[in-house]
Amino acid sequence: MTRILAQSKSASVNPLKSSQPLGAALAFLGIDGAVPLFHGTQGCTSFALVLFVRHFKETIPLQTTAMDEVTTILGGSDNLEEAILNLKTRTKPKLIGVCTTALVETRGEDSAGDIADIKLKRAEELAGTEIVLANTPDFSGALEEGWSKAVTAMIEGITRPGERARQSKKIAILPGWNLTVADIEHLREMVKSFGLHPVILPDLSGSLDGTVPDHWVPTTYGGTSVEDIRELGAAEHCIAICEHMRRPAEVLHKVTGVPYVLFESLTGLKDADQFVSLLSRISGEPVPAGVCRRRAQLQDAFLDGHFHFGGKKIAIAAEPDQLYQYATFFVDMGSEITAAVTTTDMSEILEKVPAESIQIGDLGDLETLAGGADLLVTHSHGRQASHRLGIPLMRVGFPVFDRLGSQHKLSILYQGTRDLVFEVANMFQADRHAPTPEELDPFRKREAPGGPRSSPLARH
């Protein structure tokens, strides 16, 4: 059984995790016409905004209630109301996603009550805009908890409750935060290939896919529509991806009765097979020939690439579900997880990670544990450890700011797993050093028992 080692340091060295508010804001960015609103100081929002812009290389519509010293003492309800009304007047969003920060959570503000009062008093002015609250204190949890809470809040606050007439072929999909834009696009195409209609919540592939609008848009453009969220109860089935999406799926089932299936990962042959089999069963359609061909390509990639993975030592630092995703991939390929570091012990998926122990910690812990590893797997802040240890770095997760195209890399289903095999095998090959003559022949410089002998020419 995997041992979970609690964090023992009083200070974080080269932090690994991103906060809950950032995760919630990321989820709200997957909604069409949305603006995430941080209820806290300007500094909290600035740090998150910098990370988003560096990672996505896009304009991010992130706003703040801008609390100061006075409102921190007297309460920030007036700031919250003013910020919501200003956003409504200036940007006319379809959704305002309020993310609380440690400041208001520590103070103990009743943000839910404040928003209810604002909605009641300003009902006419706020008509046409949904306001959703995600309670996301910085001092608890990490990015994936924030994402999960935001999706749960949208379902609780927007989706129509009660049993509904099911729409044939309509499937609700709740992806985890660690699915990239390319992953979500590929997921949609796979579901559509079975004749099904997917509604993805949230859908970053529609809002952060790197397109340039014809004119300035002060909100998100593209993504899941508010109306789609409202009508989620008409779906025949719900598919949740990653353990942290269990809670939103359970809430959707409780509110609307929509049954759900949860996949802990979609990376690897076994998980992809199970997903494809489920789609075939739901749709009543055979597996398309194109999907079968991609499966065959993955099998061939396994044959070509497994020589490079066997016996390799891997050090991974990531959020719990992403840690599980990559750890199972490497172990299935014949590698060994020698160091595993994650952000929080709040996820049950950690018990299933194929590693002897998992350290709750930071990238300083990763650097300490990763000696002798063949590959580091974490986000861009791991580049210093990679340089100091002389170990190649595979960049995954959030943020990745020193490489282009991270959001357009596939990592799921047959095609994404195949791409992972090639990417990692190529990294191993590029890091391979040619052996020296001494390494090939350890006896080359061996001395005779009687000591070194002079050459015959030296005796003449």
UniProtKB/TrEMBL annotation:
GO terms for molecular function: oxidoreductase activity. It comes from the Bacteria. Residues 433-460 are annotated as: Disordered. GO terms for biological process: nitrogen fixation; protein-containing complex assembly. Pathway: Cofactor biosynthesis; Fe-Mo cofactor biosynthesis. Residues 19-428 form the Nitrogenase/oxidoreductase component domain. Residues 433-448 have a biased composition (Basic and acidic residues). PANTHER family: LIGHT-INDEPENDENT PROTOCHLOROPHYLLIDE REDUCTASE SUBUNIT B. Belongs to the NifD/NifK/NifE/NifN family. This protein may play a role in the biosynthesis of the prosthetic group of nitrogenase (FeMo cofactor). This is Nitrogenase iron-molybdenum cofactor biosynthesis protein NifN. It comes from Mesorhizobium prunaredense. The gene is nifN.
